[in-house]
Amino acid sequence: MAIIPARGGSKGIPNKNLVLLGGVPLIVHSIRAALAASSITRTVVSTDSAAIAAVASRAGAEVPFRRPAKLATDSATTADVVIHAIKTLEQNSPVPDIIVVLQPTSPLRVAADIDGAVELLHSTGAPSIVSISEVDHPVDWLFRLGARGRLTPLVISPPATRRQEAKKAYRLNGAVYVIRREALRRWRALRGPRTLGYPMPRERSTDIDEPFDLLITEATLARTTASAGREHLPREPQPARGR
Question: What are the φ and ψ backbone dihedral angles of 29, each rounded to 5 degrees?
Fold first, then answer.
């Protein structure tokens, strides 16, 4: 089962979960990915917003309850929202042991990413899986900025001076979380001891928080759509070669 948390309030981008991306409300991209994933049998949206609920329902998701106001604030954690959704759904029907959490702010993740993360959980027996992507620059080049512009390196050991010498590093990209209900109950978090990472390509790992993120994601989506369209165009006939 997939749970998509989508509250109505947003500071960085007003009504963020309903902002249009490629002409489609942001949350609809995540709903479509969930509905297309073979590992998902049910897609539920948790929201406090009537407008989001209406859009989600039209897109094919279930919106069987409204999230309480106390879980629609900046301080509410995604884990708390998911736990509330599970407890509410259990009042009417059994809830699967494996829960997939899809944040609407990661609209470029596709069904294959969801199915791949779920398969990794099954094949390894891990308690949870989180999607990750390779960072843009080596961590050896990261610093903290102190007083008067003083730079303090984050990497204590001698840093690599060339990109080719640096070890790969990964970040959580927020696109896919897969967790067993027992682990969620025990940790009250979406990751913990023995959580495994599921690598995703950077071009599908954008996370929309600020207007600039939306611009980057819009450009990436447009390019991906154009490339897919070109792949389906009929090939031009080639001139016959003399033999």
Answer: -60, -45
